[in-house]
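This part of the workshop introduces the protein records we will be handling. A learned vocabulary of local backbone shapes supplies the integers on the structure line. Getting from the letters to the tokens is the skill we practise here. As an example, a complete record with its sequence and its structure tokens follows.
=====
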Amino acid sequence: MSPHDSHPGQLVLCVDMGGVFFTYSFLSALAAWADAAHVDAGRLRERWQIDEPFDAFERGEITPADYLGHLRQRLGLHRLSDEEITAGWNAIYGTVDTGLVQLLGRADVRARFHHIVGVSNTNTLHAGFWRELYREELPVLDTVHCSHEIGATKPNSAFFDHVAAEHGVARTQLVLVDDIAEVTTAAAGLGLRAHHYRGAADLAAYLDSL
């Protein structure tokens, strides 16, 4: 059956990746760059920000080389090669929420949804890295929808409309699980069912309420 076939009335559970499925911290990237460049990490923290090039990279609008060049200029990492900057960029990842993975793998949970998928604001460098890093846990998800492939980020309606169309459901049949309250609030305003993630036990109770 094609993922584009219509499945009216069936829910698709959309699980955020960073902050829900696995942990991450950009402080780890700054520490890695500081160590590689032999500079003070505090100086890098002062210069670092999530800016328009960051957002454009997550929408797939600029190339990895363009973004790495931007980081080099903004943070003063002129001594570091693209490979060294990439290594720091990918140093942000932590552990998988094993309780969540166990919950999503339960037969009674899977039976409630047409699909259980990941959704992520990410970029081609990060996505390639975490897909390999978490390869043992990712099969609990039917697929992962990434912003750099869609050309839009959460919580923009274009992102959710793309996901809904891929699974043959209306946007209102998406159930979003995200760790950022502003994202879940915006998603609810677009007609999605949305849950602010605080842990697997809390999510289990929410799913029981659907």
